[in-house]
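Weekly puzzle thread! Below is a chain. First person to post its structure in token form gets bragging rights.
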Amino acid sequence: MKVGSQSGFSLVELSIVVLVTVFLMGIGLVTTFTGLNTRSLESATIQVIGDIRKVQNLAVVRGEEARMTLASDLAANEHGYRIFVQSATNPLEELPLLDGVRLDTADLGRTLRFSPLGTPQSTSTLRVLALPPNPYYVILRSWDGTETRRIAIQSATGRVTIQ
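Winning reply:
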């Protein structure tokens, strides 16, 4: 807009541009943080599934019970789990979960045990949540509780799947 020999934008025009910019940036930030929660949970789910399969393989290869124990007392108050075999009192590994993800223990006891055949032991502390074939569940949640992933472990075969 021209007024005499000066040119430029009015205060109203500048205010509208700033408001639109702030609004668009706000939408972008919300989308970015929501996507980060989802990606962290997806990565943690893949990590836990791989480690459950590792515990199964340890049980089969060593011919002895192997277990995964949930832990909330790892270094710096991280949440994660420890992997043991029957003949060892110290964990073979301590694995923290990714930031922003927690294991929900409401549907899972503190310990997931596998027999030398690679199947979950019926005497484990897992709580059975469904009728036969009685899968056992490990539940992962984002810290804000908006995202959830369930990992099912079939009691008869030990097959691990995401539900």
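Puzzle host: Confirmed. Bonus trivia for everyone else. The helical segments are 11-62.
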